[in-house]
Design a protein that fits this description.
heterodimer; A: mainly alpha; MetI-like fold; 76% helix; B: alpha/beta; 2 domains; 10 strands; 39% helix
Chain lengths: 335, 286
């Protein structure tokens, strides 16, 4: 049963990625903008331009181009970046870990903040604190990541310059990283000086990404908690003398996580999408930042590679959410 | 008066949601140690409100306007929250109506059974588990080990209600409030559950306030009965005398309205409108 459903998911994932690849490939070629125009030297002859076109396979018909590219992608060859003149896969793998660290740190922070506010809001029901939390959260729900980013820059970068404004690590600090996962690696190698520096660089982009998600988590989780708190099993547990805090954390939370989880998964994909603009604002060297450069330079192979990576991340997130939901809900686990 | 367990005197309450509509009108009832009293009435008669008032879980929209609820000669309504907390779930326990929602779907049965023992009796996890196993055997669950490790959705409705009965009697309470515990079950299971409650009650010498709308159930399980209509006590007394020799016209009509299993073709007789009209005038409802 489980093997079949996993196989199903893998097939669906392949179909999804194929669709993504097709759409991006076609879109990139029907919108205006010519990658060759960006790279020809002034005074190049028409023959030079044609030669360059042929070199990148841009002289073929659209379906033929797609076929050639897809064939290569299947065996792991994403082509060569037009603007950076380097292997696309290599570029992606070099930058992806920075974005993954950023996104997961943001996810953890969002869950902690959103979860804590939801629990506090539930515990404070029927006190004046509850409407205050609801109203504040309601307003903040409307604030997008880039506005948070700008507000944080003003507050923690300019007004109180506590955290570094850009980059991933202080360039004067250097250890020879064996992996591109700097944050995780510095922790594993117990280089806390480096870890703290990287973490300090991440504070603002992480908050900018995490806060919009945290407000959503608060909204959904609090609603689910309130619903669980009026169930008979909570009433019985209260009669048994369980404290309110334990009622929320032990009785209600576990049943409220389910509905909150699936929405958090969807919202997390938005967060990953948000890395594009947030990484740009903080000059953070991840794939989001790279994506903007790639689009500006009409770097078709790189854009295609980036979109496929984002697509793969979304699929993995959704799969992870489903697996987590099954692990947390005994009813799903036992079928 | 030493064997008196519960004494509700002149209890009145209004619903603020319905503009101060009285939901209880000067209700009095008593329960001796080891007695099973049925609390009967139609929907909205106030039987659940009384049960909730005793458990001190009245919704905020319902306000007690007068009366006492004496439990072992101490007024529950006058107690501080802390005192109530020490009594509820310890000396007074609840068997809830719907076994579907009364067990936490995310926790194993064993852990949920152990809660009361650990919180109210200060048992260690191990001792509570051993006691829980014993309790499951007491409520005639065949393989208690498997049930202990199960989640609620893996059990049938009847099994869940057995678990909840075990949980209620686990702490050896003196009073159990049973809030229509068989309404959500099908008829064959109902009978077993009623027998089980009666057996547990006799074994523990527990007083039971049995909330139900079914006079048939009252006849099966109760020693005495209090009949309510619109928040007012209409008739009360030993089951036998109330059912066999009802004093009030409404009681007579209600008994006549019940299905007759010996005469399946007889059909159902609703309580005649003129009796209800007279009753409402008697109570003072416009």
């Amino acid at each position: 049963m489980i093997a079949i459903s996993i196989l199903n998911r893998l097939i669906m994932a392949a179909v999804t990625l194929f669709g993504v690849a097709l759409i991006v490939f076609v879109l990139l070629r029907v919108v205006p903008g010519d990658p060759i125009a960006m790279m020809i030297a002034p005074g190049a002859s028409p023959a030079d331009i044609l030669a360059l076109r042929a070199r990148y396979g841009l002289d073929l018909s659209l379906p033929a181009q797609f076929g050639v590219w897809l064939q290569a992608v299947v065996i792991g060859d994403f082509g060569t970046s037009i603007s950076l003149r380097r292997d696309v896969l290599e570029l992606l793998l070099g930058r992806l870990p920075a974005t993954l660290e950023l996104a997961f740190a943001a996810l953890v922070v969002a869950v902690l903040i959103g979860g804590a506010v939801a629990v506090i809001g539930t515990l404070s029901r029927r006190t004046p604190l509850e409407p205050a939390i609801d109203a504040t959260n309601g307003v903040l729900l409307a604030v997008p990541d880039f506005v948070w980013a700008l507000a944080l820059v003003l507050l923690l970068g300019v007004l109180f310059p506590i955290f570094p404004l850009s980059g991933r690590i202080d360039p004067t600090l250097s250890i020879d990283f064996a992996t591109p996962f700097y944050l995780a690696e510095s922790l594993v190698r117990l280089r806390f000086d480096i870890f703290l520096d990287i973490a300090a660089h991440m504070v603002m982009p992480v908050l900018a990404l995490a806060l919009p998600l945290a407000t959503v988590i608060t909204r959904i989780l609090k609603e689910a908690l309130l619903e669980a708190m009026v169930q008979d099993y909570v009433l019985l547990a209260r009669l048994k003398g369980m404290s309110e805090v334990r009622l929320v954390l032990q009785e209600a939370l576990r049943n409220a996580i389910g509905p909150a989880l699936s929405l958090t998964g969807v919202q997390f994909t938005f967060l990953v999408g948000g890395t594009v603009i947030v990484e740009r604002i903080f000059s953070y060297p991840g794939i989001g930042n790279m994506a903007i450069d790639a689009v500006i330079n009409r770097d078709l192979p790189l854009i295609q590679g980036l979109v496929l990576v984002f697509g793969a991340i979304f699929i993995v997130i959704n799969l992870g959410v489903d697996l987590l939901a099954a692990a947390l809900n005994p009813r799903l686990r036992h079928g | 008066m030493t064997d008196m367990l519960l004494n509700v005197t002149g209890l009145s309450a209004v619903s603020d949601r319905e503009g101060g509509l009285p939901v209880l009108r000067d209700v009095s009832l008593s329960l001796k140690k080891g007695e099973v009293r049925g609390l009967v009435g139609e929907s909205g008669a106030g039987k659940s409100t009384i049960a909730k008032a005793i458990l001190s879980i009245l919704p905020r929209t319902v306000r007690v306007t007068g009366g006492w609820i004496n439990f072992k000669n101490r007024d529950l309504l006058a107690m501080k929250p802390q005192e109530l907390r020490s009594i509820m779930g310890s000396e007074i326990a609840l068997i809830p109506q719907d076994p579907q929602t009364a067990l936490n779907p995310g926790r194993r049965i064993g852990a949920q059974l152990a809660d009361g023992l650990r919180l109210k009796r200060g048992m260690s996890a191990k001792a509570a588990e051993a006691r829980a196993l014993q309790l499951l055997a007491d409520v005639q669950i065949r393989d208690p080990d498997r049930v202990m490790a199960s989640f609620p959705h893996q059990l049938s409705g009847g099994m869940r209600q057995r678990v909840l009965i075990a949980a209620a009697f686990a702490v050896d309470p003196e009073l159990v409030v049973a809030d229509e515990p068989t309404t959500a079950l099908d008829v064959t299971v109902q009978k077993e559950i009623l027998r089980l409650i009666r057996r547990m009650q006799e074994a523990h010498g527990t007083g039971v306030l049995f909330v139900t709308h079914d006079l048939g159930i009252v006849a099966q399980i109760c020693d005495s009965v209090t009949l309510l209509y619109a928040g007012k006590v209409i008739e009360e007394g030993p089951v036998r005398s109330v059912l066999e020799n009802p004093q009030h016209a409404y009681t007579r009509a209600l008994i006549a309205a019940g299905p007759r299993y010996d005469r399946p073709d007889a059909g159902l007789e609703p309580v005649p409108e003129e009796i209800l009209h007279a009753l409402r005038q008697e109570i003072g409802i416009r």
